[in-house]
Write a structure and sequence with these properties.
Elements: E1 4-8, H1 10-14, H2 33-36, H3 39-44, H4 46-60, H5 67-79, E2 83-87, H6 93-97, E3 102-104, E4 107-114, E5 120-122, E6 141-145, H7 155-163, E7 167-171, H8 183-189, E8 193-198, E9 210-213, H9 216-228
Parallel strand pairs: 1-2, 1-7, 2-3, 7-8, 8-9
Antiparallel strand pairs: 4-5, 4-6
Helix pairs in contact: 5-9
Bound molecules: ligand BJW.
Ligand BJW binds near residues 152, 174 and 179.
Length: about 230
């Protein structure tokens, strides 16, 4: 069986009802990126940022994984350690579908990071009412997510996986944000075949050996079935 790395972006969760960022009616319509997705924006107006993430955390309880998440979970059951899902998403839909080998390179909505002691704690409630850190008690919790200018999580593990992958598949991402947008070139340089599954051609579509365009909820189960045939 091939070693497979799947990179997922907001498009894989779109059919579950979670808006993407850059599409019409996306998460950033009505928000300036610099206000809600940078450490400087958080420093300037923490409450604006808390409200943005608190609303997204609450909305997570109302959505379910879709056939694309379920197909990747099925693929993990068949490939085991030979599959790694690297997600840019901060939702937990991969895990709820049954995937266990998932790296959240841009952090997680259900986690809070304490600016006082650095502890990451599972978090299901609002942060806007400034609750205390369960470890040190300081009321300096922030969403445990990676904003522009910050270093994504787990880069060493991701790099290792890309270097040994036979197949790199990108699902539902616009290819507008680095370092994730550069994974396709890196994986190809290391010898992997590369495949894009996205609603429309992404910014990096010409860098893939193959691109298929359509809804993730259709394309991902089709591709998984093809791989396991
Ligand atoms: C469907 C679908 C369906 C819809 N089916 N598809 C100049 C040049 C190059 C780089 C830089 C530069 N200036 C600055 C940088 C670096 C910067 C960057 O990339 N900036 C760009 C604007 C150019 N990057 C960073 O700062 C990163 N850090 C970094 O580089 O550190 C240095 C370092 C790296 C490595 C090692 C050591 C040091 C950090 C980036 C953090 C991004 N954070 C966010 C917010 C996270 C928290 C949150 O969720 O709120 O991450 S921004 C946002 O964009 C979020 C997403 O994960 C990310 C990517 O978005 P995504 O997933 O692609 O969503 P969309 O909406 O863009 O696209 C959805 C796609 O789905 C579309 O194509 C649709 O068509 C498709 N779709 N429905 C299939 N049903």
């Amino acid at each position: 069986m091939p070693r497979v790395v799947v990179l997922t972006g907001a498009g894989i969760s779109a059919e579950s009802g979670i808006p993407t960022f850059r599409d019409a009616d996306g998460l950033w319509e009505g928000h300036r990126v610099e206000d809600v997705a940078t450490p400087e924006g958080f420093e300037r107006s923490p409450m604006v940022v808390h409200r943005f993430y608190d609303a997204r955390r609450a909305a997570l309880a109302e959505v379910e994984p879709n056939p694309a998440h379920h197909a990747l979970a099925e693929l993990e059951r068949r490939l085991g350690d030979d599959l790694l899902v690297v997600t840019q998403n901060i939702d937990d839909l991969h895990e709820r579908a049954g995937s266990t080998r998932v790296l959240h390179m841009h952090g997680e909505l259900l986690s809070a990071l304490c600016l006082g002691c650095g502890r990451r704690s599972r978090w299901t409630h609002d942060l806007g009412d400034l609750p205390p850190c369960p470890r040190c008690g300081s009321c300096e919790l922030r969403p445990d997510v990676v904003w522009f200018g910050e270093i994504p999580y787990q880069m060493d593990r991701i790099q290792d996986a890309l270097e040994s992958a036979d197949l790199f598949v990108s699902v539902g991402t616009s290819g507008a944000v680095y370092p994730a947008a550069g994974f396709v070139q890196y994986a190809a340089r290391c010898g992997a075949r590369t495949l894009e599954l996205n609603l429309v051609p992404s910014a990096g579509t010409s860098m893939f050996h193959e691109s298929r365009h359509g809804a993730a909820g259709v394309l991902v189960p089709e591709w998984v079935a093809e791989l396991l045939r």
